[in-house]
Amino acid sequence: MKSNPDIKKAVRQHAEMAEFFSGGLTVKTNSPALQPPQQTTRQPCSPETIKELEDIAEQTRKCRKCELGSLRKNAVPGEGNTSARIMFVGEAPGADEDTQGRPFVGRAGQLLDKIIAACGLKRQDVWIGNILKCRPPDNRDPKPEEIIACIPYLQRQIELINPEIIVALGAHAAKTLLDTPKAIGQLRGMFHEYTPGLGHKPIKLMPTFHPAYLLRNYSDDNRRKVWEDMKKVLAELGLPVPEKTGK
Ligand code: URA
Prior knowledge:
The chain is an alpha/beta fold. Helices cover 45% and strands 13% of the residues. Helix 2 (47-62) packs antiparallel against helix 6 (144-161).
């Protein structure tokens, strides 16, 4: 039986993408012994903060503020290190996330894991969430009324975790958090500011392409752009910036 060239191409592209974000990257350092320990997280947050974050997660599991509440298998409140310096915010759960109640666990999530690893970080170092806590049917775009109903959960999670940098994955996350109609291509590549609420100091926000977009629009140029964005995040945090040593 002849194999489908499109499937073969997609498999090859996926393997190359994984290689780009997992292979051939080394951290340029003088001597590891001279390097200060990497500060990937901040001071642990208070028991009260952790309790409130758990309460928010519980509220999202019971939420019926929009129609998605009656369509989901599981809400996906977000997860990760509550003392994270970096917070990743995506669009909305997909089918795998809806099944497991965890963010970014499908194909796009596997690529996000590779990007995080390429940064010299672990998934446990960061916090990962979404604009919407429930899956839109057939992965359609979030509706404005769904974003309006859901966004207070994320806003409070950001206030409580108070990361130093938010990485907005894709157009929906970037446009929602920055309250702008600008395209992701115009927004990415530079820091913006997200202001959680009155009296809270702004948090730096780096928009970049969504991993699912990268998988669909595979090109060296797009992969490089995401990597350039992440290098800026690491430099801003004073973390070692891995250099690509391979081809
Ligand atoms: N895409 C998203 O935006 N979020 C997820 O959690 C998974 C895929």
